[in-house]
Design brief:
The protein is an all-alpha fold. It has 3 helices and no strands.
Length: 64
């Protein structure tokens, strides 16, 4: 399988609303900027963990 086809099979929570809040979280998919940039480098397990975390992630909270 080509590298391009592999990348197409990786699930992504992206909803094509790529705007960041003041804490560098995307207001579309709720991922942090670093999670978006590194998405294709993460293992399947890491992507699955992030997807699970997104279900309850509140990006409106102020940073601590």
């Amino acid at each position: 399988m080509s590298e391009q086809n592999k990348l197409r099979q990786i699930k992504s929570p992206c909803v094509s609303i790529c705007k960041y809040n003041e804490n560098n979280f995307c207001i579309g998919c709720n991922r942090h900027m670093n999670e978006i940039f590194d998405w294709f480098d993460f293992t399947d397990e890491m992507r699955t963990a992030i997807m699970k975390d997104l279900l309850t992630r509140d990006i409106s909270a102020s940073p601590q």
